[in-house]
Write a structure and sequence with these properties.
With about 425 residues, the chain is mainly α. The protein is built from 16 helices and no strands. Its main location: membrane.
């Protein structure tokens, strides 16, 4: 059955089209290769460059994790959600632009710029996710969330193709631009794409649910946050889900952020890696929609189980991977479930939390995910350095998916968030 989407829903989903360019070009594809080459030029070994990237990811995710709950609590005050979204959105744009300005030889500055841009992207996503309860109804969240991810894969493919084209033309000396400058242009393109196509979200999405503003904003927000942590045990479904999410999304995020560096460690050519990652974007788009539709026929939690099982297979296969064909197979496995597990997790959580505290709860959603993401990249980094082999680090992630799967089975199906639960202030 065809679903007609509202203007607010379309605008909200379109932000995935805009922001996902950062995820594929900066987080996953171009930046890790660019950074790896910069580190190599400075005499840093492959294993150490991968480890330093892992440590950087751990540091900036720790910063976001500390900020998210308090900022989410403050953003639940009526009229504040968009202000916080715009603040982090602007930080992310500026951080991305800085990557185009930092000298290629300054690999440490590149990591700093990457951290700033990632803090902006991650922070903006906390409030973007929080808007889900403002733009649609619980019964439509699976479809809206999944379609947003699908648009993200499709939309990000366009600047990704343009970026790859620039880099390949430069590598083959078909344009009068060096490979380094072509990569810088890719970062510039990412910032422009992200900024331009975020305008519908900025113009058409407004906060509907929220709490009244109280005197002493920061102090009262701290009290509300403390109250929510104390009451979280009463939201049994949300609390248990957050524990499960913390583990399995850790594995997902680590694989996304470090997959290209892992491929480089295996000796795969940069061009081959970029082509594979583009294919992931193409395949992931319809699968994200498929997960959303299947979640209308089967429980959303069941489809999350399916995605976790796929990722367990990914970790196992990655341990034995050593050729480009292996990397292709691994990438296609990831493409089938990468968008689905993220979209359905966001929608599932959105249905079991109180709407008037959506940003606060999505701040907790983010902190559980972010604190987990400190462990994943650090785990890969430590084991990679200790063994000198990246595949051992990736394989270690399997335990996170197993724990997440088990805890998810403990989430009570009958409990949902209540807007009427008493709030202690």
């Amino acid at each position: 059955m065809k679903i007609s989407y509202t203007k607010a829903e379309h605008s909200w989903m379109f932000y995935d089209w805009a922001g996902s360019a950062f995820s594929i070009i900066v987080t996953t594809a171009v930046f890790p290769i660019y950074y790896s080459s910069a580190a190599e030029l400075s005499g840093v070994s492959d294993a150490n460059s991968t480890a330093y990237l892992g440590y950087t990811i751990s540091i900036f995710t720790f910063i976001v994790a500390l900020l998210s709950p308090l900022l989410g609590t403050m953003a639940d005050i009526k009229g504040f959600k968009k202000r916080f979204f715009l603040t982090f959105f602007s930080l992310g744009i500026l951080g991305t632009l800085s990557l185009a300005l930092v000298p290629h030889s300054s690999w440490i500055l590149l990591l700093i710029g990457y951290a700033i841009a990632s803090i902006g992207m991650s922070g903006a996503n906390v409030f973007y996710d929080g808007f889900l309860v403002d733009i649609t109804e619980p019964s439509r969240m699976n479809r809206v969330s999944s379609r947003g991810f699908s648009l993200g894969y499709i939309g990000s493919s366009i600047p990704f193709i343009m970026s790859i084209g620039l880099i390949l033309l430069a590598q083959n000396e078909l344009i009068p631009v060096s490979t380094v400058n072509a990569t810088r242009l890719a970062f510039l393109l990412t910032a422009l794409w992200w900024g331009l196509f975020s305008l519908p979200m900025i113009r058409n999405v407004e906060q509907i649910h929220g709490v009244p503003r109280r005197p002493q904003l920061v102090k009262s927000s701290f009290k509300r946050l403390l109250s929510t942590f104390q009451q979280l045990k009463h939201y049994r479904a949300a609390f248990t889900f957050l524990i499960a999410y913390m583990f399995y999304i850790d594995g997902v995020g680590t694989i996304i952020s470090m997959s290209t560096a892992y491929g480089k460690d295996l000796g795969l050519a940069s061009t081959d890696l970029l082509v594979v990652l583009f294919a992931v974007q193409v395949v992931a788009a319809p699968f994200a929609i498929l997960y959303g539709r299947l979640a209308d026929r089967f429980p959303g939690k069941t489809m999350i189980y399916v995605a976790i099982i796929v990722y367990i297979g990914v970790c196992t296969y990655a341990f034995f991977m050593n050729t480009l064909i292996d990397f292709w197979i691994l990438a296609m496995l990831i493409a089938t479930s990468q968008g689905g597990i993220q979209a359905l997790s966001r929608a599932y959580f959105g249905r079991i939390i109180p709407k008037h505290k959506a940003s606060e709860f999505f701040g907790l959603y983010d902190i559980f995910g972010r604190f987990a993401s400190i462990i994943g990249p650090a785990l890969v980094a430590v084991i990679t350095q200790a063994t000198g082999q990246s595949n051992y680090g990736v394989f270690s992630l399997i335990i996170l998916f197993l724990i997440g799967f088990f805890v998810l089975t403990q989430v009570p199906e009958s409990e949902i968030g209540s807007d009427t639960m008493q709030e202690v202030v």
